[in-house]
Amino acid sequence: MSKLKRTHTCGQLRIKDVKSTVTLLGWVSSIRDHGGLIFIDLRDRYGITQVVFNPDKGNEFYTTAGQLRPEYVVAIQGAVSARPEGTLNPNLDTGEIEVYADTLEILNKSETPPFEIEDESKVSLELRLKHRYLDLRRPVMQRRLIFRHKVCQVIREYLDRLNFIDIETPVLTKSTPEGARDYLVPSRVNLGKFYALPQSPQLFKQILMVAGYDRYFQIVRCFRDEDLRAQRQPEFTQMDMEMSFVDENDIIQIIEGLVAAIFDKVIGKKVATPFPRLSYNEAMASYGCDAPDLRFGMKIKDISDIVQKSDFKVFLDTVKSGGQVRGVNANGCGNFSRKDIDDLTAFVGQFGAKGLAWFKVEEKGLSSSITKFFPEETREKIRQYMDAKKGDLLLFVADKPKVVSQSLAQLRLHLAQKNKLIDTNTFYFSWVVDFPLFDYNEDLQRYEALHHPFTSPHPDDLPILEEKPLEVKARAYDLVLNGVELGGGSIRIHAPEVQKRVFRLLGIEDESAYAKFGFLLDALKYGAPPHGGIALGVDRMVTLLLQLDDIREVIAFPKTQKATCLMTNAPSEVDLQQLKELGIRLL
Amino acid sequence: MSKLKRTHTCGQLRIKDVKSTVTLLGWVSSIRDHGGLIFIDLRDRYGITQVVFNPDKGNEFYTTAGQLRPEYVVAIQGAVSARPEGTLNPNLDTGEIEVYADTLEILNKSETPPFEIEDESKVSLELRLKHRYLDLRRPVMQRRLIFRHKVCQVIREYLDRLNFIDIETPVLTKSTPEGARDYLVPSRVNLGKFYALPQSPQLFKQILMVAGYDRYFQIVRCFRDEDLRAQRQPEFTQMDMEMSFVDENDIIQIIEGLVAAIFDKVIGKKVATPFPRLSYNEAMASYGCDAPDLRFGMKIKDISDIVQKSDFKVFLDTVKSGGQVRGVNANGCGNFSRKDIDDLTAFVGQFGAKGLAWFKVEEKGLSSSITKFFPEETREKIRQYMDAKKGDLLLFVADKPKVVSQSLAQLRLHLAQKNKLIDTNTFYFSWVVDFPLFDYNEDLQRYEALHHPFTSPHPDDLPILEEKPLEVKARAYDLVLNGVELGGGSIRIHAPEVQKRVFRLLGIEDESAYAKFGFLLDALKYGAPPHGGIALGVDRMVTLLLQLDDIREVIAFPKTQKATCLMTNAPSEVDLQQLKELGIRLL
């Protein structure tokens, strides 16, 4: 047990504390000998304080101080002193003072760490993960995890103030219909049966609405047995909420208020609300995707009609067979070389586009290797419609709508990054609304729910539900930040007959629906209120707010499948006897 | 979509709102016809409001109101009116007003529920769990879950204010050394290997201390594959915290402050701090267990020495062979019949006691069938030592210390319940401290950690660690409320050499320790600060604070192994193809 009790943190002392006797505990961050004195930067989560050992005072401790090495854990006691003129450090909160130590206790030693504990780390992610306890000790990582804590705390306080109740839902549960692979847990009591780890608490929160809880929220772990990607983890955290007696606008307003509260209390900035809303159709038409990055323009435009007056067979055939010709104006890229354009063609090729038509905008009008196929009048129409001026480059893809959207969405982002069109200091939030309820899966030849099977159709579209399912709009909404979907939600179905009609369209016939979702259909029979909600990815939101690329920078113990950097959360071999008790064996 | 937007909740309107036009949405709780008017009790989470339909106003809605049934979900609009004299309901917060509805919309119908939605439910737990969405709609269940939410919210706010950081630890992890059975999750990416669901975040929070986070907390789900009991669930929630640079008193004070904050802000009562502390030895001696119920006295006393002056062979032989004679004074039970005492003998028999010796205290002294074996002087000594007066009953067990403790601990509780000695309005908190570090497992012939292998020995006992392990005290502490352990914690080992010595004593040799806890031993090498923490059972705490017997009353979706009341959280059959992908098959 240390004899010295901490009186202050290493980030706390100021000029007003001069002459106080203080005790600090922390890690030795650096050691310098200067003019016969030993200077130690002592670090803890709260900051750094300069500690001085003077050979005149207490020789015993001066000698010990000489033996200190980086990352030793020490307790020091001494008097706070103003730093001599010329030695103040304006980069440190404690930069006006230093502590003259007259007592030193080594609480623990440290081997030489495999990398330095400093913000700028040049070592590999693998090494950082292997020694995560040292990686997390870097002040920049501490700031990130503290930021994440604050975001969660603001979410909780905001929702608590609005009468939301935090209710825990089970982790050992039945399969949920979210489409991804479930993690399974064999049951020892019911041999041959398995729990599933939840992909979301969707059904539980709907049950809570039926049970009259009115406003529910949870910051909750969810699980998907998917392959790892930089923005994805097999276990992730979402802010999940659900409300009764509301419509889309109520949910959207509450979330906008929540985002504003996070900006206000954690980031110290204002955010403008309400966020712009785009319909799904607008988003797909102008940006080629349903999570558009609106920090820059370069909208996609459709010239399928205009090019009817041309002899360019590729365009004409594409449109004739139900395809489209759409493109973007790459402002100021008229000086791109043939090689540059070939690279762009290869780029869109990754997303299925078979070619990339281009026009450079010159004094005299559009110029290209295909100019000859387009009458003067058509070229001028294209120029005007694309808002093109001298020095611009127009790029077009002609293909099936899906391919055109995908390749142009990516091309737009690619050009914006290349030309530095994105103001990385901006947070641009938007809502995408009016999604279709169903998608048609060509391979399986059946309808699929675009969100999930509990999303309410728009009431105006109920009459055409069976007749024209693909025209039915969903009461769904996604929140998008800087081109990334933060999450989404919907008003749910509360009428049991409507739920049955939707199940039927999805090919979940009544009997099998009952086996799978019977408790929900039962619940809807006993007075389910109109309700809706949303789920936002907490890890993803924090990563974006901190303007980081990798979600692992905001999670203390990230998953990784590489055995070399597994920390403690790797799968491991288990006792065969234990497997036998669970009624399973290895293949 | 409902045309009517809620303006007030059903618990909100007061006499000052009279003449306002309001819109309420909720469930029909009851319907009464009276004097040509229809009275509806409209219920939501916030309360009940009486709604009146008058045939004079808007006949259409009066007719619709006549078709309402219990648990229909409706929206009504109307004017707030003061109730006529004599019809005020002092039991309702809204009991001074009623709303004369001029609009009614049925938002959803309800079949007749299988039980009534009221506080006092006489139906079986099975039926309640089967229709949990209706069970949770009962106002008493809503109050309990809201109470639970508030407790968690107070915990978070209190710890946030004290600079604790909420950091999430993984759910898919390696086996933790907590002693219970792990739930396993087969890994698809590493076939033949398994994740374990964590029994606690113990090792992760220690890593966080090594990483310099100083103060960590989490309200976290933990998992133990154990059989269900009323106070236990296979997945449970604990308030987990850890601090650096502290000793036992720091942790104890913070938790006492936390309990006081919960009482202040959620229960509206004061709780006296500091809580009394008992050593483990005192607790075992006076109460026979390490989680004593201190709401009543009836301390256990040891008469092993006194009875040396007797001819009672059972007592003499027991003491000679290393056993004890201990007992309690059942105040005022001197009138117990032979049958009563036989019942008590059978009761202690369940806990291994082979008999129960008794003395009734009469005017002339102790009286019993075994009086003759005890000289007058010895009997008087027993009477005095047991603080016995006329009308009392003294009960003794002679056996091995463990059996004596167990059976007397239970006997003490049994007598207290029988004689109503327990003031059930009292919350009696205490700390049990100075636990032994090790226990000796007679069956396996080896030492076991009484808490866990990371608990720090008392530094004074380090010299005798290997020599007299059973005499080494642990720096551990348990929080006890009304005879139930709410949780416990300890100061941990931060010196790698001490950790290795403890592992060695536990038979975890260096190499295997490294395979199992290598990352912890590694972490301790790089400047681990002195640290300690605690974990408290949230479900258990809430259950006790609400004075309920069953933990399932404070959890929305409890686990149960009975197929008939499984809600959604039952294990189920899965696709054999999916098992194949996981590299496992059923036995």
From TrEMBL, chains A, B:
Domain of life, per lineage: Bacteria
Signal sequence, start to end: none
Record: residues binding L-aspartate: 178, 224, 451, 492
InterPro entries: Aa-tRNA-synt_II, aa-tRNA-synth_II, aa-tRNA-synth_II/BPL/LPL, Asp-tRNA-ligase_1, Asp-tRNA-ligase_1_N, Asp/Asn-tRNA-synth_IIb, AspRS_core, GAD-like_sf
Top EC class of this enzyme: ligase
Aminoacyl-transfer RNA synthetases class-II family profile domain segment(s): 148-558
EC nos: 6.1.1.23
Annotated compartments: Cytoplasm
Function: Aspartyl-tRNA synthetase with relaxed tRNA specificity since it is able to aspartylate not only its cognate tRNA(Asp) but also tRNA(Asn). Reaction proceeds in two steps: L-aspartate is first activated by ATP to form Asp-AMP and then transferred to the acceptor end of tRNA(Asp/Asn).
Quaternary structure and partners: Homodimer.
PANTHER family per record: ASPARTATE--TRNA LIGASE, MITOCHONDRIAL, ASPARTYL/LYSYL-TRNA SYNTHETASE
Protein name: Aspartate--tRNA(Asp/Asn) ligase
